[in-house]
Write a structure and sequence with these properties.
seven-stranded mixed beta sheet; alpha+beta; 19 helices; five-stranded antiparallel beta sheet; single chain; 538 residues; 18 strands; globular
Length: 538
């Protein structure tokens, strides 16, 4: 058992049976700023662990790290050079976490020369910088190179489908990591749009530059994606790839009838694809609007910042006694008001879930949100992006407010509300927005009823939703549904089979079924399926 502080992670994000004390010092590991901690177990003594970790790589670290057993080599208190014997380190682990354990005390340099972990350090140096931020250009003979975080079969499948959608002919080389381009329709199109490749003919893709604009320690939370900790989010990289795979072009319209945290909206916007996002949850509607609309009112957001921040705490300058809510409610521009309401809800979430003091959380998150909007504007200018138009609506997937055959493509993930109660999970935010939880529960899909009745009601609601998707989609166009079999009351609910059977019954044709391994989400699912349907009957 060890206590350690991981780079840019907060104490509440580290699980250990040992109390974690405050940060003792800073250090650099391979040129990357990190933090140093003493292992608190008395028998371990003066051992330090420095690390850099991101949530995307957490799974790899947890799988490969078992325990760190340090044994004394002699009475002087020096440790055996095999102290890392119980840590299963391999290339994937090193990609996930650049790690060094070192000793304090006499003869430190000499001992390190014989330290078995020296080979690990050399290998880590060869791997270079963290995958998302390695900006070195690639020689043109390395024509296509995947991001280093592409490690699952489904990601490789999506990467190849991306290339096929742009009519690129290719061969996979170098252990499935590199692709040789044989013939392309437009190299620049690949560079502008691809999601799973960081280089095209030696030049960085737009996506590799977009993800540099990240104010968090998670590679998936670049630009505005991080705003509000919503459970069950899409991976943005996957959504960008799916938009390409179903061949949506600039000016086309994609629908997400369960817009959730707004991932489809942000990724469509970046590609110049119009998006209509619909959700019955007012919290989802709010966060999706903030993520996609705030760039339109950035200067006005800045203009209001001083007025808002001086209401967060009592001061000599707040003589009229106006509260934070008073100040936010006085904002006339709805998009600016939404931005500050969202900042408040993120702070409330931090206070409720993590015990952070509200005022400090508000001020910190407000700064991050403003920087993220600024980052968005900067990358739009740098890459000369023509943004898609995003329209977020409050509505019901069972009765879409759209005309027949008006949509060019659908990408969505129905709520896993059989296993994950979205109402309870976001109760603090919904109540702050002024909604009655019991009333909302009656409107949400999958949270009504108990036992078998709950599953039956969910299935009937999903049938209506699939009917509506079919109605609004243009003929020959595609609908992507990402869904998994959940576990409810100890039994597996066959949601995937149900979805396929009903979709084919109403006129969809299943053209791809890709398994996607998932982790987390309270262990209610082990995998999802990416189902790609084509509307073949009108």
């Amino acid at each position: 058992m060890v206590a350690f502080l991981i780079y840019k992670s907060n104490k509440e994000n580290v699980e250990t049976g040992i109390p974690i004390t405050e940060l003792e010092g800073s250090a650099k590991l391979f040129g990357v700023p990190g933090s140093a901690k003493t292992i608190t177990r008395k028998s371990f003594g003066n051992v330090k662990l420095i690390g850099k970790e991101c949530s995307e790589s957490k799974r790899i670290f947890q799988e490969c790290f078992t325990s760190l057993r340090l044994e004394k080599a002699d009475t002087r208190g020096l440790y055996k050079k095999s102290c890392l014997a119980s840590m299963q380190m391999n290339e994937e682990t090193l990609k996930a976490l650049k790690l060094i354990v070192y000793y304090k005390g006499d003869n430190m340099t000499d001992k390190m020369q014989n330290f078995k972990g020296k080979r690990m350090l050399q290998r880590a140096e060869e791997l270079g910088s963290f995958w998302a931020y390695n900006k070195c250009e690639l020689p043109e003979d390395k024509q296509l190179l995947l991001f280093d975080n592409v490690q699952f079969i489904y990601e490789l499948a999506l990467a190849q489908l991306e290339l096929e959608s742009f009519e690129a002919h290719f061969e996979v080389t170098n252990g499935l990591r590199e692709f040789e381009l044989l013939e392309t329709r437009d190299d620049n199109e690949l560079k502008k749009r691809l999601a799973y490749f960081k280089f095209v003919r030696g030049k960085p893709t737009d996506y590799s530059q977009i993800i540099q604009k990240n104010r968090t320690h998670s590679v998936n939370q670049y630009l505005t994606h991080w705003i509000y900790p919503y459970k069950g989010k899409f991976h943005p990289q996957m959504i960008r790839a799916l938009l390409n795979i179903i061949r949506l072009e600039q000016g086309d319209t994609v629908l997400d009838p369960f817009i959730g945290s707004g991932t489809t909206g942000v990724e469509a916007q970046l590609l110049g694809i119009n998006c209509i996002g619909i959700d019955i949850s007012p919290l989802c509607v709010l966060q999706s609007k903030v993520k996609t609309e705030s760039i339109e009112v950035f200067q006005e957001i800045i203009d209001w910042k001083e007025e808002i921040t001086r209401r967060i705490k009592p001061s000599l300058f707040n003589t009229e006694g106006r509260t934070l809510n008073d100040a936010i409610n006085s904002i006339k521009n709805e998009k600016v008001k939404n931005f500050y309401n969202m900042a408040k809800l993120v702070a409330i979430s931090d206070n409720t879930r993590r015990g952070r003091e509200f005022s400090n959380a508000f001020l910190k998150n407000l700064e991050l949100m403003i920087f993220s909007i600024k980052d968005y504007l900067e990358i739009v200018k740098k890459l000369n992006l023509r943004l898609g138009r995003v329209e977020i609506k409050s509505g019901d997937s069972r009765a879409l407010p759209l005309n027949n055959e008006s949509i060019d493509g659908i990408i969505t993930s129905p709520p896993y509300s059989i296993a994950l109660d979205y109402v309870s999970n976001d109760a603090h935010a919904l109540e702050e927005l002024g909604y009655d939880l019991s009333q909302i529960r009656e409107e949400f899909i999958g949270v009504r009823g108990k036992g078998k009745t709950r599953i039956d009601l969910y299935n009937e609601d999903m049938k209506k939703s699939f009917d509506e998707m079919f109605r609004v989609l243009k003929p020959k166009k595609y609908a992507v549904i990402v869904i998994g079999n959940a576990t409810y009351l100890g039994q597996e609910v066959k949601t995937v089979e149900f979805t396929i059977n009903y979709a084919e019954k109403i006129g969809f044709k299943l053209v791809k079924n890709i398994d996607k391994i998932i982790y987390g989400l309270y262990n209610v699912m082990q995998k999802e399926n990416i189902l790609i349907f084509q509307k073949v009957q009108g």
